[in-house]
Each structure stands twice: as C-alpha cells, then as structure tokens.
Amino acid sequence: MKHTISILVENKFGVLTRISGLFSAKGYNIESISVGPTEDPTISRMTIVTNGDDDQIEQIIKQLNKLIDILKVVDLTNEPFVERELALIKVKVNPHTRSDVIEISDIFKAKVVDIGPTTLTVEVTGKSDKITAMINMLAPYGIVELARTGVVALKREFKGEVYSSKEIKMLQRKTKQKNQNLKEPPQNMSSSDEKTK
After folding, report:
1. Beta carbons within 8 Å of 59's beta carbon, 6+ residues apart
2. C-alpha pair distances (Å), 48 with each of 19, 119, 124, 138
3. What is the pLDDT at residue 26?
4. TM spans, by residue (predicted)?
5. Could you tell me how far CA 18 lies from the centroid of its own chain?
6. pTM
7. What are the boundaries of each domain within the chain?
8. Does CATH number 3.30.70.1150 belong to domain 82-152?
9. How far is CA 97 from CA 75, 94, 189, in A?
10. Which residue in 98, 87, 89 sits closest to 148, CA to CA?
11. Residue 134 in contact with residue 106, Cβ under 8 Å?
12. DSSP run (H or E) holding 51
C-alpha cells in the first residue's frame, strides 16, 4: 500500500542522508521525496511517498522518531490531506502535432512554458495520478525530457465534508452573488422614496 509520510526536521546538514539511509537499511523503496523550508527557516518539511503495509510503516515511523533532528512524523495516508506535484514535460512537436499537444495541455490545465522549433515544454501541477495521466497522453508524441518534483502534502484542517473543486467554485459563485445582492438597492423603490433619501 502507498503511504505518504510528512516529516518536520531541523534544517541541518546530513538530515536527509540519515532519513534516506534508514529507508534503504530497512529495504524500503522511496517512490518520491521532496524537502524544503517551512514558515520557520530553521525547520524543513519532508514529504516521502513509499510502499509497505501498515505494520512496516509503523516500524519505520518509530525508527524515524528516534533520529536526532526530527521534530514530528505523521503518516497522512489515513488522514484527509491535500497533495500536489509539479512536472515539466518537454515533448517533440512538428507543425502538425503542435496544436494537439497544446490542446492536451489545456485539458489538463497545464501551461506551455517554452516553445522551440521541434519541442514544446509544459508545466502541470496536481495530484500524482493527474501528472501520470498527462505523461501517458503525451508519450505517443515523444517525451524528450521529464522532471517531477515529487509530492508535497499537508493535512487538511477542515473536519467536515470535503468538497470537490467544482462544488467549491459553485459555493464561491453563490457567495459572490449574495454579496452583490446586499450591495444593490431594492428594485421596487419608488421615485418619492429615492427623493426622501
């Protein structure tokens, strides 16, 4: 089973080496690893995606908690969490296929960030399965180069129902309309009422 593990570490030399060394010593493959500073520059957040059953991952987390410089370890797998990944994909194009690749990019809400005579580079963000789906769609055209950041993830704080992006947009539209209605004067106001104002 795939697990997404979030780790807060002190921003010190050698921490990444010790953590990746622990995984390799236990024989676990790291599918992706991303690390960067947090709101506190002395602390970094590491997001690791790996495979293993619950007992194995529990053992890994116990071992991680024993390492110095590690502040907090959370297995996000069974928690509601937000995850994103970024990929840059350079694709072969010619005058006949260029518009096809741009159309695929539009469908996946990707951005064209570089155009050359024979290549086109697109930037796509989203969940890992979205990134993989786009790569699979572009593969027949010929992928020249590919760079993926790996997953970054944060636990959701909202405890109620999790809305889809479509539902969120609908709620935003309703709120905007409600705010506009509050600003507009009533339509049935007579001219005498307006004069008294």
Report:
1. 26
2. 10, 32, 20, 27
3. 78
4. none
5. 26
6. 0.71
7. 2-79, 82-152
8. yes
9. 43, 5, 59
10. 87
11. no
12. strand 43-51
Render pLDDT for 20-29 as a digit per residue (tens, 0 to 9). Answer: 888 888 788 8
Structural class in CATH, domain 2-79:
alpha beta
| 169/34 Cα distance (integer angstroms) | 30
Q: Which secondary structure element, helix H or strand E, spans residue 126, and what is its range?
A: strand 119-126
pLDDT tens-digit readout, 49-76: 998 888 888 888 998 998 888 999 999 9
Cα gap 37→45, rounded to integer Å: 6
Asked whether the domain spanning 82-152 has the same topology as the one spanning 2-79, the reply is yes
Measured in residues, the chain has a length of 197
Q: What is the pLDDT of residue 192?
A: 47
Instruction: For residues 91 and 140, give the distance between their C-alpha atoms in angstroms, rounded to a whole number.
Output: 10
Q: Please, what are the averages of pLDDT over each run of 10 residues along the chain (197 residues)?
A: 92 88 84 91 93 86 89 90 95 95 96 95 95 96 96 80 61 72 59 48
